[in-house]
Amino acid sequence: MTSRRRTVRLPAPSDLHAEPPLGPLLLLDLAAAVAGSALRAHHVAIQGDLLLDEADEVTAARVLAHACDQLGQILDHYRRRVLARLARERRADPF
Known about the structure:
Elements: H1 13-18, H2 22-42, H3 56-92
Helix pairs in contact: 2-3
């Protein structure tokens, strides 16, 4: 198993002022990443193919770990769009 490293970009104070949800969404993103990693560490079998005789708990862990990954992708997509919009607005009205 290889460890995944993530670079976390903390929102600038001006970004948090303009879009306060960026702060808690960053925490949610980190929580999802840690939860997914913890599930994969605890249920090593979920890193491979689905087995027909897999225990319900393992299947649930597999689904939940995948949902954590998806949530991270959705949050990243949202964050990028918000930051792009803020950058456009600042270029259009620097004051």
